[in-house]
UniProtKB/TrEMBL annotation:
CDD domains cross-referenced by the UniProt entry: NUDIX_MTH1_Nudt1
Species per Swiss-Prot/TrEMBL record: Frankliniella occidentalis (Western flower thrips)
Localization per Swiss-Prot or TrEMBL: Cytoplasm; Nucleus
Name of the coding gene: LOC113204888
UniProt protein name: Oxidized purine nucleoside triphosphate hydrolase
UniProt main location, coarse: cytoplasm
Cofactor dependency: Mg(2+)
Gene Ontology CC terms: cytoplasm; nucleus
Amino acid sequence: MTTRKVLTLTLVRNIADEVLMGLKKRGFGEGKWNGFGGKVEPGETIPQAAARELTEECGLRAHYLTKVGLLDFEFLNDPVIHEVHVFETREYSGTVVETEEMSPKWYKIEDIPFNEMWLDDPIWFPWYLKGGPQFYGYFLYKGFDTILKQELKSTDLPPTTTIFESVKSQQA
Ligand SMILES: COc1nc(N)nc2c1ncn2[C@H]1C[C@H](O)[C@@H](COP(=O)(O)OP(=O)(O)OP(=O)(O)O)O1
């Protein structure tokens, strides 16, 4: 029987259209560049978890988060499926800082370090970058270096946005 671990992954874009990536310093995905995120804790909504993880991992507070996609990762002989909710923000406050978990760096789109990221990233990232409806992806991994099955499709859902009024009012 499988169980689902619900996780978030947030991509931050600046006015120069760069993407903030984080080099994971410990734990799952150590040594890989990724967006910012982690487990949804009891009592949190998924966007609240995404906002919290973003602040914990790179210091930024999102003014809003737009849900751009959903990714399911299954690992052969592992009953735990990673259900990863992917968000984007382009409005935030605070200063980018290195944390215990992540070393952040802005990347121009053409310089995103796909060869130092999860194998699935070069597959779905271009869908994210081109915009449009939310995407859905499924990846079956054998270990962490082989993808046995993959599916990526567009859904009919438009991107949905959660605005964090408390952050906005703190700015006023
Ligand atoms: C191969 O599967 C994955 N690919 C990609 N590109 N990203 C993934 C995959 N599986 C999970 N992720 C994302 C989702 C999260 O943003 C992180 C994992 O978060 P982490 O393990 O750090 O989350 P927590 O369990 O909350 O960890 P801490 O309690 O240590 O913060 O990677």
